[in-house]
Design goal:
This protein is an alpha/beta fold. It is about 50% helix and about 10% strand. It binds arginine.
């Protein structure tokens, strides 16, 4: 149990013993760390109900809770706040019993199956910054929810069934009209070798997208091709499968390099066969209406403050849309036994999800008990304040971005004279990790919904609130433990703290369970990011003040090394939950 829960229980019991609501016993970290470690404000609320002076109630609570082994000081501040300071013995004993796997956090059980939909790249299209942010936030959330004890399934939800597929098909046809895929009379078999490489596709897609925009006749051809693909024309399906495979292989490599993994590589196309029966059912139940040949679900509610247009399920030609496959995907997820689905997608898609979720509940595709939640995020901007682009003005390729941060990290390592004498291979590995730490921490340390500026210089700095600073902090702790081991010194039992910085570090280590719970509650890794920084900072202060290797009292020294080891374990865990890997040395 966390320290805060332990204290809250004690105060709750004290309130109860006075005939008051035990819920008033909530203990929090003190707003004024200079005055006390913790506080409880329940007496103020109790006073209103009990018609007594809050300070009197606070005094009664203090008398009831008082355990001199636990509390060094209990005082009343202002109108009736209770200030709490623990005994060093109690704190030391709590730290000594902190389990190095969960750091006091209790795993949830039976909280249902959570699906996290993130990443969401599209076939044949270069990923853009929205996909990058989705991947970083989604990866962290999947780790956090797993750690918290949820049964988690992650799904990339590949964009592979929309009009861009028809566009690619007609572009392919205009370039290679001779290919068998385009012969309307053919039903295969088709060649195993893909006729186009990923580079081809990435060049073809913007070309045809521009043509479609400029020429309605091209748009019409693409629409027709999309429809025929969805309706199962064999040559188109076979060609599409090549597009899919080529994109999938490349993106899988990119995601591997980024340290992001998905349980499922489902896509929009996965649910194609569910769409028709789903639409039949919805129509039969009167959940959708025909409107000028299209099928729509009304989702507006009387209390809406802005207009929520209906969700379009089929176009007048019968073709499916983004919302159609998303609705069928919910149908599929219900069948998978999912209780909660989190969609980590760019904030600009909010309206889309509002429509889809409402349609799912309204048509009974999702039971009302199912939680469908859009987890939106802001944009990663370039220095010009516009969505980040490469220097050449193109959309970023994930692979190039990873190389960019790695190269910048290598330069920083050189400047800081770190890792200079290590073998080249190890240095490259360290630079890769520092680069990814810079990128990930630079992203995840922001409030999820804010926009932020991608600032390579700031992100890769070894100073300030950055990934490299945290990695360096963790690596330094590793090296302290190695140095100690060389001197035959090792961690021993934790004894009560003697120094202020030591006590402050111990208090910091007790905060993990609440930080993790907050991260889950708000689906916001920035809480963990902030905490990791606080832990490193507290450690650095402790390490500066307490000269571990020169300490003469052997029991104190061993306890300090125990504290060092615990701090390292927590830091590695926090960074792992953010998707960041720590090298052994730098
Ligand atoms: N492929 C989409 C895009 O690039 C993102 C997919 C998000 N997930 C979803 N279930 N719609 O915008």
């Amino acid at each position: 149990m966390s320290l805060l829960s332990n204290l809250t229980d004690r105060f709750g019991a004290a309130f109860a013993s006075l005939g008051l609501d035990p819920g008033l016993g909530t203990v929090t970290v003190s707003d004024r760390p200079d005055l006390a470690q913790f506080q409880c404000n329940g007496a103020l609320a109790a006073a209103r109900a009990a018609g007594r002076a809050p300070r009197d109630i606070a005094q009664d609570v203090i008398d009831a809770v008082g355990d001199p082994d636990v509390f060094a000081e209990l005082g009343i501040a202002g109108p009736g706040f209770i200030n709490i300071t623990l005994t060093d013995e109690f704190l030391g004993e709590r730290i000594g019993r902190l389990d190095p796997d969960r750091f006091g956090h209790l795993a949830r059980s039976n909280d249902g199956k959570v699906l996290i939909d993130f990443g969401g790249p599209n076939v044949a299209k270069a990923m853009h910054v929205g996909h990058l942010r989705s991947s970083l936030i989604g990866e962290s959330l999947q780790r956090v929810f797993r750690f918290a004890g949820y049964d988690v399934v992650s799904d990339i939800h590949f964009g592979d069934w929309g009009t861009q597929m028809g566009q690619l098909i007609i572009e392919a046809q205009s370039r290679r009209p001779d290919l068998l895929y385009f012969d309307p009379a053919s039903s295969g078999p088709y060649p195993d070798e893909p006729p186009f490489s990923l580079d081809d596709l990435q060049e073809m897609y913007p070309a045809v997208a521009a043509r479609t925009k400029a020429d309605p006749a091209v748009a019409e051809l693409a629409r027709q091709a999309t429809l025929e693909l969805q309706q199962g024309r064999p040559g188109y399906r076979a060609l599409w499968q090549h597009f899919w495979d080529v994109s999938h292989d490349a993106q899988r490599r990119d995601f591997d390099r980024l340290g992001v993994a998905f349980d499922l590589w489902h896509g929009e196309s996965t649910v194609h066969d569910r769409v028709a029966p789903m639409l039949e059912k919805i129509k039969a139940q009167g959940g959708a209406v025909e409107d000028a040949g299209a099928l729509i679900v009304e989702v507006a509610r009387p209390d809406d403050t802005k207009e929520i247009p209906p969700l379009l399920l089929t176009k007048s030609d019968g073709g499916y849309l983004y919302g159609t496959t998303d609705l069928a995907t919910i149908d599929d997820r219900v069948a998978m036994g999912i209780d909660t689905a989190l969609y980590v997608v760019d904030a600009r898609q909010s309206l889309h999800f509002e429509q889809v979720f409402r349609a799912a509940w309204a048509t009974g595709v999702a039971p009302e008990s199912m939680l469908l939640e859009h987890v939106p995020f802001g944009t990663m901007n370039g220095p010009d304040g516009k969505p980040f682009k490469t220097r050449e003005g193109g959309v970023l390729r994930l692979d190039d971005l990873i190389s960019l941060v790695r190269d910048a990290a290598l330069k920083r390592l050189e400047e800081a004279e770190l890792a200079t004498e290590y073998p080249d291979e190890e240095r490259a590995e360290i630079a890769a990790r520092v680069g990814l730490a810079a990128l990930k921490y630079g992203d995840l340390s922001n409030n999820r919904t804010s926009n932020y500026v991608f600032d390579l210089d700031r992100f890769t700095s070894f100073e300030g609130k950055t990934g490299p600073y945290l990695l360096y902090g963790a690596v330094r702790i590793k090296s302290i433990l190695r140095k100690a081991a060389d001197l035959d010194l090792g961690p021993g039992p934790i004894i009560p703290p003697a120094a202020d910085t030591e006590r402050a570090l111990m208090l910091e280590l007790t905060r993990f369970p609440e930080v993790l719970d907050r991260t889950v509650e708000f689906r916001a890794p920035n809480h963990l990011a902030e905490y990791a920084y606080d832990v490193v900072t507290a450690f650095n202060r402790f390490y500066e003040a307490c000269h571990i290797l020169r300490e003469e009292d052997a029991a104190r020294q061993a306890s300090w090394l125990g504290l060092v080891e615990l701090t390292l374990g927590l830091l590695v865990l926090l960074l792992d939950l953010l998707g960041i890997e720590v090298p052994d040395r730098m």
